Amino acid sequence: MIPIDNFLVLSAILFSLGMYGVLARRNAVLILMSVELMLQAVVINFVAFAVYLDPETFTGIIFGIFVIVIAAAEVGLALAIILRLFRNRQISNVDEADLLKW
Amino acid sequence: MEDTGTVVAFWILAALTVGAALSVAAVRNLIHSVVLLIVSFAGVAGLYITLSADFIAVVQILIYIGAIAILLIFAIVLTPRAGRLNQEGFMLLPALALAVLVAGTMIFVAFDTSWAISERDGFEETATAIGDLLLDKYALPFEIASVLLLSAIIGAILLVRPEGAEEGPE
Question: How far does CA B27 lie from the centroid of its chain?
């Protein structure tokens, strides 16, 4: 059986890759993709803990499904905001949307 | 879950997932990065199968590859000139340092903790139990999730509606 540490290390690597993308990239769609990578890492953790620590109840799997649902809603709304931003101000980089910057 | 085939599959899928995610964070072309993200999602779906969580693997393929990746491609082709000025911002080195720090901390905690591993290994079949739980024990979160999805759909439609369409058709 694969040790649970393998899955935890994998999800830690995926999470930090997503975090690097969110912090370092400037394109809004790329930032959104990096957020999806971070959510993937979270769901991997939930499912791994559900399988290894608690196979009788399905709590981790249910939590993973809800995380996926919220990720889908979040992507739809964020893409609508990105399209709106592009249509109003012709920009798609987050550091150019500085109207509220003091 | 004990044969060597599962172990080999895990390492191949893990290398695929991490390699594709690394390329997503590094590559400049937006369409290329979406394709690499799809490869990474497919690798994660395979990992769920090695974990014997079959239902969430299918959900992963349907929602992430089927819906979210298509939405991302739409967003990229609807924002032309998005590829210009696509380099990293001034936060490159702090972001790199923070990512390495977070990964190191989580890996240390994962190895340092002695997890209470259950004797049973894996699920036999998950879809029936998940369906029962979603309509019984987790019925209220299930309904709230559907309301959330509906409000997200309405909000997205309102946001992307063209300027002159406030009156609606007669």
Answer: 19
Tell me the C-alpha distance between B163 and A19, whole Å: 35
Query: Is B108 part of any domain?
Result: no
Count of structural domains, chain B = 2
Residues B8 and B74 in one domain: yes
Q: Is the pLDDT of residue B85 over 60?
A: no
* DSSP-derived 3-state class of residue A27: strand
Confidence bin at B114 (pLDDT 50/70/90): confident
Closest residue in chain B to residue A62, using alpha carbons only: B130
How far B20 CA lies from chain A's nearest CA (Å)? 10
* Interface contact A40, partner B, CB < 8 A: yes
Domain end (from B29, B64, B84): B84
B86 CB neighbours in chain A (<8 A) are 26-27, 30
Residues B79 and B131 in one domain: no
pTM for the complete prediction? Answer: 0.88
Provide the ipTM.
Answer: 0.89
CA-wise closest residue to A62 among A73, A70, A50: A50
Asked if B155 lies within 8 A of A77 by C-beta distance, the reply is yes
- Per residue in A22-69, pLDDT (tens digit) is 888 888 888 899 999 999 999 999 999 988 888 788 888 999 999 999
Contact at 8 Å (CB) between A63 and A46? yes
Based on the fold, state whether residues B11 and B78 are members of the same structural domain. yes
Same domain, residue pair B20 and B75: yes
β-bridge partners, A27 = A93
